[in-house]
Write a structure and sequence with these properties.
Helices cover 58% and strands 14% of the residues. It is an alpha+beta fold. It has 2 domains: 113 residues, no CATH class; 149 residues, 2-Layer Sandwich (Heat Shock Protein 90). Strands 2-4-5-7-6 form a 5-stranded mixed beta sheet, covered by helices on one side. It is elongated, with a radius of gyration of 37 Å.
């Protein structure tokens, strides 16, 4: 690591003056004793040989004081000033945006002093910042791509509408494409705002008891028209259950899971919702299962479905922006619930949401 002088540093941890003062104190202490011995010398109390020994001892103490001062200075530099300088330089690089900076441990024997632990914490912080920076860049890249696509469609078809020679049927088709693109753009922005709000929310909203079974039926009813258009059979096995959660937050979960079920289920397929209570260790848990007979997912896709902007449909033939399931996961994390998935390619998927009956 380069030893660049920081212009903000206008003083030293320890200057020559401090060491001179330390040496002066030690020398003064020695001089005080020598004065006493000199007084005794003048009064002829001490023997000649004793006087010689005292003089040599005084010189010895003075030399040792100088050596002790130098050793203290070296130790101070080795174990405090130099480690803090390295930490300061590394922090300055982090502030400039270089998150690859790491500080090696001071010791090679595997043991750790408090400075080594401080270095470890600094390196961990740098790794986390690098990870966050990568996620931020990926997020911006994905958002830019997802926004650019519908905007490009809107621009292209709007230009086509300006052509006075197109037929009325083509004009209607172009308007329909533009409408779908604006709906996709609106959905993307709405989901980004929701996800941003949830990620900056430390606690869930106001939790109160409400009828979960009624909420599930109401959410399913919102997709009745879409299921009817695709001739999807809908069945339910829902018990009447009260839970204590933020009703608005959980509605995000059911709407996104049902939306995905309808989206990925082929015409003539089926969707099934099950709501049951499961008792584990005297604690009542609610298990909500939403199943479909859609395209299903392989194991690799199942591991990534909760990542932002990830879409299992790489062809993008099915509308979506890859934010629905991350919203579901973040909402459940915030609410204290969990979600798992079972899926087989070509046979459909089942999402299991587990909640506590009493979340107070």
């Amino acid at each position: 690591m380069k030893k660049n002088k920081d212009s903000r540093i206008t003083g030293r941890y320890a200057s020559f003056k401090e060491y001179a003062v330390l040496l002066f104190i030690l020398a003064g202490f020695n001089g005080f004793h020598m004065w006493i011995y000199q007084s005794m010398y003048q009064s002829e109390i001490l023997h000649e040989n004793v006087r010689t020994v005292i003089n040599i001892l005084g010189l010895y103490v003075l030399v040792m004081a100088a050596i002790a001062t130098a050793i203290i200075g070296l130790l101070r530099y080795r174990f405090f000033i130099d480690p803090m300088r390295k930490l300061s330089e590394a922090a300055r690089e982090i502030a400039k945006g270089d998150f690859s900076v790491r500080i090696p441990s001071l010791r090679s024997d595997g043991k750790k002093s408090f400075v080594d632990v401080l270095y470890d914490d600094f390196n961990t912080m740098a790794e986390e910042l690098a990870s966050i920076e990568t996620l931020k860049n990926d997020f911006i890249a994905n958002v830019s791509h997802e926004i650019k696509t519908p905007l490009s469609v809107i621009q292209t078809y709007t230009i086509a509408l300006q052509n006075s020679n197109i037929s009325e049927e083509e004009r209607k088709e172009n308007i329909q494409v533009i409408l779908e693109a604006t709906q996709k753009l609106s959905s993307l922005v709405t989901n980004i705002l929701k996800l941003s709000k949830l990620e900056n929310q430390e606690i869930s909203g106001e939790a109160k008891y409400y009828d979960l079974s009624e909420q599930l039926r109401r959410c399913a009813l919102m997709f009745a028209d879409q299921m009817e258009q695709k001739n999807i059979q809908f069945d339910e096995d829902i018990d009447d259950i009260q839970v204590c959660y933020d009703e608005n937050l959980l509605e995000i979960v059911w709407n996104n899971l049902l939306s995905n079920a309808v989206k990925f289920t082929a015409p003539g397929g089926s969707i099934f919702i099950k709501l049951k209570v499961d008792v584990k260790n005297t604690q009542d848990f609610v298990i909500i299962s939403i199943s479909d007979t859609g395209c299903g997912m392989d194991e690799i896709t199942q591991k990534r479905i909760f990542d932002k902007f990830f879409q299992g449909d790489t062809s993008h033939s099915i509308p979506g922006n890859g934010l629905g399931l991350p919203l579901v996961k973040k909402t459940l994390d915030l609410s204290g619930g969990t979600i798992t998935v079972e899926s087989t390619p070509g046979q459909g998927s089942t999402f299991h949401v587990i909640l506590q009956t009493n979340n107070t």
